Amino acid sequence: MKELSLPGAADVLAAAARIAPHASVTPVLRSQVLDTLSGARLHFKAEHLQRSGAFKFRGACNAVSALTPEQAARGVVTHSSGNHGAALALAAQSRRIPCHVVVPEGAVAAKLANIVRHGAVLWRCASTQAAREAECARVQAETGAMLVHPYADAKVIAGQGTAALELLQQCDTPLDVLVVPVGGGGLAAGTLLALQQAATPCELVLAEPAGADDTARSLASGQRQPDFVPATVCDGLRGALGAPNFALLHGRASVITVDDDATVAAMRRLWQVLKQTVEPSSAIALAAILADPARFAGRNVGVILSGGNVDLDALPWSRP
Amino acid sequence: MKELSLPGAADVLAAAARIAPHASVTPVLRSQVLDTLSGARLHFKAEHLQRSGAFKFRGACNAVSALTPEQAARGVVTHSSGNHGAALALAAQSRRIPCHVVVPEGAVAAKLANIVRHGAVLWRCASTQAAREAECARVQAETGAMLVHPYADAKVIAGQGTAALELLQQCDTPLDVLVVPVGGGGLAAGTLLALQQAATPCELVLAEPAGADDTARSLASGQRQPDFVPATVCDGLRGALGAPNFALLHGRASVITVDDDATVAAMRRLWQVLKQTVEPSSAIALAAILADPARFAGRNVGVILSGGNVDLDALPWSRP
């Protein structure tokens, strides 16, 4: 096993400078109704309004911007259930370099459309982790493209951390706790680095689907638990926690696991009250707060609304 | 027929001062994707993020705030398909006075829930204009409550105008044209007054459902055409253009009529691209722009996203 390349807190600052010309500064949304419902003061970082419709653009843009001209000329490749693929495609398109995206079966149609819209080449594969990585390696070998892993990548992790860094700067009050969704752990690990960079005592809580709870089991056991078959409506959180992500997060974050029913209920609330079209993988953060209200009562809570790319013809509450 | 009491441009300024302690300053949203799609520079005034989920709070709040203590003690009454009812209920709740809302059959469930949540008394009636007004008159006679008509009311019209006034102040560039939905004409007439108050040459375009196009026919013929049976997915735009609204708008605004299919398509785009949960009665403004792109090409266009109270279990694209 090769040595892990772990990003540090300062890398988040470097990423923020690198992506500043390209990424949006997304707003922070508040809601009296949701504050009353939760008993907490919620500060929603609207990353579903980020370019490409998810925070993923931050990491992808940081990785693409950091390529040497020689690397960039050969393009980039990744595997992604959707949001990272679209984000990388957009980042590559901005730098006018080729982009290949390996997409597992079962991906959300709206996300595939975003990838194609930004000019990437699509490669389909089975939905297992092994199939994704094998197809990705094949494309990489054939094209010489640089792999930009969706989460187990130092540049990607540092880039994702810029969302939390921005949120901390935007809030008029110090945050006591920050809740972010966890799948592969790019946003989670990046957020941890951002909190270290800001030198704040703010606690980090990860919201994870009960049907893909490898992060909870990994952090509890002290060993990564990458072998599982995900079963969750949160299509963006089906990946296994990455090795560098685990190394950064172990001992430094706690996890709340959430049933899909609670996630879908939270998603409806965000649509109905906040009027924001967020995807299940985003709504899970609010669901985690509502699942354990005593833990958050009276506190200033940051919530990263991570993405908003949903298939409007297959909403989770209208499925047969 | 009694003399019409028409508000003037200065009344919009007075309304802005009156509602400032209560109403939200809603953001202006932009989208590169929608600018490219339309060929125009679109500035979306996010009134679906207004308190109660629609611009209607502005007019209701202005009317309630202007009541004398004696009037206020007897409460307020209105008839509304939903958004005005909820807005008046919230405004009355803030002043701790009674509120009665007459609701026609066929109103959206989410809107009824908002009315009840803010403590108003609900009265049901048939969906015709005559039935609404008769029931409203009955409640008024029994309770002594002051009628706050949803649109044919000087204070309501002036209050609705504050949305456009705010938008003009928020934009970093002068707007060439402003597109707003029209039903009873409260927002439309208020917006006209705001443009007069701002002394801008900005053009006013009204977006109206083809299945409730009395405003188009009224402005074309020079005579109000209040007798029709509305048939449109835009539940907020089924009312007939009011008399003071007609008097203000005649000769000073043009209308684009829009089929429901185009409105629903625009609504999907706003959900998917802008990630904003707006209702059909809001989306019609974007639909009008996309229906006549040559008219808006290259121009700075203001669009009032008027409300976001939708029934998530009965979305217009998933109806049988």
From TrEMBL, chains A, B:
<keyword id="KW-0460">Magnesium</keyword>
<feature type="domain" description="Tryptophan synthase beta chain-like PALP">
    <location>
        <begin position="20"/>
        <end position="307"/>
    </location>
</feature>
<protein>
    <submittedName>
        <fullName>Serine dehydratase</fullName>
    </submittedName>
</protein>
<dbReference type="GO" id="GO:0005524">
    <property type="term" value="F:ATP binding"/>
</dbReference>
<dbReference type="GO" id="GO:0018114">
    <property type="term" value="F:threonine racemase activity"/>
</dbReference>
<keyword id="KW-0456">Lyase</keyword>
<dbReference type="InterPro" id="IPR000634">
    <property type="entry name" value="Ser/Thr_deHydtase_PyrdxlP-BS"/>
</dbReference>
<keyword id="KW-0663">Pyridoxal phosphate</keyword>
<dbReference type="Pfam" id="PF00291">
    <property type="entry name" value="PALP"/>
</dbReference>
<dbReference type="InterPro" id="IPR001926">
    <property type="entry name" value="TrpB-like_PALP"/>
</dbReference>
<dbReference type="GO" id="GO:0070179">
    <property type="term" value="P:D-serine biosynthetic process"/>
</dbReference>
<dbReference type="GO" id="GO:0000287">
    <property type="term" value="F:magnesium ion binding"/>
</dbReference>
<dbReference type="GO" id="GO:0030378">
    <property type="term" value="F:serine racemase activity"/>
</dbReference>
<comment type="similarity">
    <text>Belongs to the serine/threonine dehydratase family.</text>
</comment>
<dbReference type="GO" id="GO:0030170">
    <property type="term" value="F:pyridoxal phosphate binding"/>
</dbReference>
<dbReference type="GO" id="GO:0003941">
    <property type="term" value="F:L-serine ammonia-lyase activity"/>
</dbReference>
<dbReference type="InterPro" id="IPR036052">
    <property type="entry name" value="TrpB-like_PALP_sf"/>
</dbReference>
